[in-house]
Amino acid sequence: MKLRWLPPSKKLSLRQMLQQKRDLSFHDPSDLLNNELDSPNPEQFPDESLFANIEEIIERITHAMYQNQPLLIFGHDDPDGICSTYILYRFLSTCGYQAHNYYIPNRETERHGIQNSLIEYVHRNGYKLVIVVDNGISSKEGVEKLHALGCEVIIIDHHIIQKDTLPNAFAIMNPQLSNCNYPFKQLAGVGVVLMLIRYLSRVLQHEVDDCYYFWTAVGSYADKVPLIGVNWAIARYAIDRFSVLKDSSIDFLCRNHPRISSVSDIWGFIQSTARLIANGREDGGNHLAMRFLLQMGEEKAAHFEQLEKQKNDWECELNRVFKLMDSLIEDFAGDSYIHFDDNNSLPYPLLGTAASYTVNQLGIPAIFLKRMDGVIVCEGRCSDGFNMTEAFSNCKEHLIQFGGHVKAAGFTMKPESYNDFLTCYKQYVSQNFKPESDLQYIQYDAELLLSDINRESWEIFETFIPFGQDNSDPVFLCSNEISDEVSEKLLTEYIGKSLPKNRKIDFLFNWKAPNIIRVIDWHESEL
Description:
alpha/beta, inorganic pyrophosphatase (n-terminal core), 18 helices
């Protein structure tokens, strides 16, 4: 694959370019940051009262707390859902409320959203209030069944809304609601929960612990929401306050992690934590990761060892799936990839992972389907230039329900609708997706001299970490440098071809550490 280099639309300094990438334009940057290099100030985040329905939600939760009414937190089975459940559970506990519990479904055996297992659990235990976090926005039937039991449902979610499947809940808090005036729409599920906690803390006059920002950063990273605006500010605040965070789980994980001595190390620790708590699925609403987070005694170490073992086993399973996908997609040609797992070789939780891997390898939309509990479940992934939720919406007459994000969505479907769906989906792809050519374009963000790659510039660069979704690692251009001098000054990693010997070159790179770069591409300098 050939790369054509494109210059930035406007020539900016290192600091100006980095400020632009993190995109704080939703709000006056001076309100978020005291100056260019200061830590974000959560007191200057957008006002949570701009969320639709938040007053009704706060009133119902505080009523339950004051009356000591039992409530159940129902969280999605992924790091975003785990972090959402944990910070809400912990905040209620620190307020002195003790009548709450949690339920995390096992997505290896249960489908997304409110299913019969939760409804039976609520009925068996007599709950009259369920707070659904990081899911539920498409669970119209599930909410109706809970209402029939006399149980009120509050939904705290961030997923895209379809009007025809919007549940008739007691109240919904979601930045995607048409009447929601909160200016930043791209929060993770845990980000929405954090905003609920921040507002609830003002009502109850109870402090919001800084560790909640850490766990919000963990869930936001794992859910691959755009790392810009409020999401960036939350993650950066967690990094800047890392040394003073008070949380037994963070302390424990730090003691079992390689040395953490820089901003980059802290961001790496956040990513490692997300990978750990992605494990721990159990039946009956239990979850090992939740027990680890809540455990204060000696059992914490045993829970950690179990999670570590599951993580290692899971990584082996991932490698197996990646090898399987390599064999399946070899020599594939087409404008979309569709795989029905009729051999049961892909676990349900890895359908999305397999789809993402396929998108990265082929550069085309990919959907993976399999039978589960008498229906067909699907996970779809895509890259820029295609909208997976719009594709599913276009075929919704063939689906039971669907939901997700632009680049990652899923659905359930009756088996008899399979052929009609495929016809509809393939037609939509053919009309709305244009495969990329062999010539790829890469736009660099700024130009640096070799002499600019130094400790002083790195300190500026570090103030703008973290990078991530929609705020990728900056790409720099370095021109007219002798390759041997580059290799002498810097440690070089390579995405493509390694640098030649003793040539004058131009090269594109990511900056990974003060003296480490990752070379993306190079060519000889023009005379």
